[in-house]
Amino acid sequence: MDKLVLLGDEAIAQGALDGGISGVYAYPGTPSTEITEYIQRSVIAGERSLHTDWSANEKTAMEAALGMSYAGKRALVCMKHVGLNVAADAFINSAITGINGGLVILVADDPSMHSSQNEQDSRFYGKFSMIPVFEPANQQECYDYTYAAFGLSEKYGLPVLMRVTTRLAHSRSGVRRMDPQPENSLHTPDDHTQFILLPAFARKRYRGLLDLQPSLEADAGQMGYNVFQDGKDRSKGIIACGIAYNYYMEVATKHGLDYPVLKISHYPVPSNMLQEIADATEELLVLEEGYPMLEELLKGALKNSYQVRGRLSGAISRDGELDPGIVGRALGLADSSGNGIPEVVANRPPALCKGCSHIDMYNALNEALEPYGPGRVFSDIGCYTLGALPPYNAINSCVDMGASVTMAKGASDAGLRPSVAVIGDSTFTHSGMTGLLDVVVEKTPVTVIISDNSTTGMTGGQKSHATDRLYQICKGLGVEEEHIVELNPLKKHHDENRDRIAAELAHEGVSVILSRRECIQTASKKKKKSATK
Amino acid sequence: MKKDIILAGVGGQGILSIAAVIGMAAIDSDLYVKQAEVHGMSQRGGAVQSHLRISDRPIYSDLIPAGSCDMILSVEPMESLRYIPFLDKEGWLITNSKPFRNIDNYPDEQELFDEIRGMSNSLLIDADRIASEVGSRKVSNIVMLGASAGSLGLTMDSLESSINGIFGRKGEEIIRMNIDALHAGKREAEAQLIS
Ligand SMILES: Cc1ncc(C[n+]2csc(CCOP(=O)(O)OP(=O)(O)O)c2C)c(N)n1
Known about the structure:
heterodimer; A: alpha/beta; Rossmann fold; 3 domains; 6-stranded mixed beta sheet; 5-stranded mixed beta sheet; 19 helices; 18 strands; B: alpha/beta; 6 strands
């Protein structure tokens, strides 16, 4: 079939489409967003009326996909690594319920934190939940493994985790397609108690999951995704996981290295393959994008005779993503870098766009807070987090989606007055609403500012569940209407906005300020679109 | 044949269109391609770069190894210098001379140009002016593509048909302008190399 040039993300999307999914469920998050966007644009999704709408958050996405699987159809769930923390309860328990239609959870990790709060390694979630994990090394494998993962999921009756990292997710290369599979037909599970995790049932299901483990490992040794490649120079053995394999091969090809290599792309890692390369070589270098998971396993707590090097031993930095240079140095090659960056080059960090509505909101808030002094604004994750940088220096926290509201509550409980939360519209419907309910129930003095730009801005302008619903949501949660204040964040309303914020800061109770003006990026895109029509 | 190119610029300046045109031309010429892009946070007015690799043999790494890049092609002068550690000693630095100022501490223009001219292989192209001459400042990125065309290892025909493919939906006028921009950029680079 035809060869396409696809991002790793897009190859996953195409693999899922051709693998016969009936729906994708996702909440945007870099570097996973392009998977769902590709499916949304695809012809086949339209023809087959697949489910492609965004979910409110990763937990709702995971659960809806599990529901689709219950009904016998294949479903894909996509998220960034921290999204799996949000979905973790549903995710871990889906390993106990098992699946009916094939279920694949795609998680995109972000080592080096290009756009994230941490660089957690999702392979641990695979181990934690005891399900098979795929870790492709290139775009073709992204396609092939996704295509195959649904069948594997149905073979075991378990969900399958696919892990990619930023570089692969956002890098393009040629991909060859296979024949598209039809969708599964609607059929509920043979055993209608399979998904009831009452302790008595759950114990049985868990036992079944444990009993499956040896065959999961044996299959990972035989199915061909983990590959041993022999080499003449046995002074070292290389274990390379996922994309780390590319960096090793880049360096090895250039410098004529010929060590035995074990490429790992399928977990649980078969211990016989590890034993084989360890026995055949004098020392092991473990190349992993993320945490030193295999290195730790190989090294163990007790002294043994095998030499294992990697991120733990210090051969490779403990943090940050790999690249050919890092891998080369771990192999004892000289640093190949050219000249240094000239001194005249200044940093150019990301910044709020010119004309962004968050700017006017922060300018008003900063002035309203002047009488109280700094250190009382809990914020959240989105474009508005850039309010942390000069000239605004407007916020004091950014932890996880929704934490602004609840941290402001806790600080208020501790006596901080005023205590302010600043949260974006999409973040609010993702995880802020439940926190606001806590605030309302206890009437905790907190001022919540929802900076509503009517889109999910940071990830590129996806539809926001909050659009046109915020007033009703806040009212429905029990915020008093006289303390739901609507602002138009424009320079010309600055004084009025400042005064209205100041009035709510002084209120000993719950206030919500809805600061609403459309994102200038989405607004200008709309303009362009209507101009070309 | 192997070309490792770093495309540089500021979020929103259109380096991905350059990458798309080169990438498509390379695929149509039966070459292997890998192209790592930057999405997400830094697209908000920050420094962005794309590693573009073309070869007649399979390519492993999505990232170009430091010190082995054949060309830095930049749509902004200061950004062109940010990736110097990647550049091979024999490599070329080709950049638009028009600064994009969205930071307070943007360096002195003359100092930047001196640094760029001081490199062994560099071209400073006034792409915004050339783009205006062919019709619109918006095609300055394609002017830069044209300026690099002589050392890409791809034919002008393949670049033109790639522009046709990529901008096809936008109509004749836009295609014309982009193709003019491509040739104008190439002429400018050739003129500079001769003088
Ligand atoms: C659990 C989790 N899911 C997804 C993300 C990725 N993410 C970061 S910001 C953001 C968008 C926030 O949108 P909104 O709250 O509307 O603010 P805006 O960027 O539009 O200002 C998303 C989806 C994340 N950091 N954490």
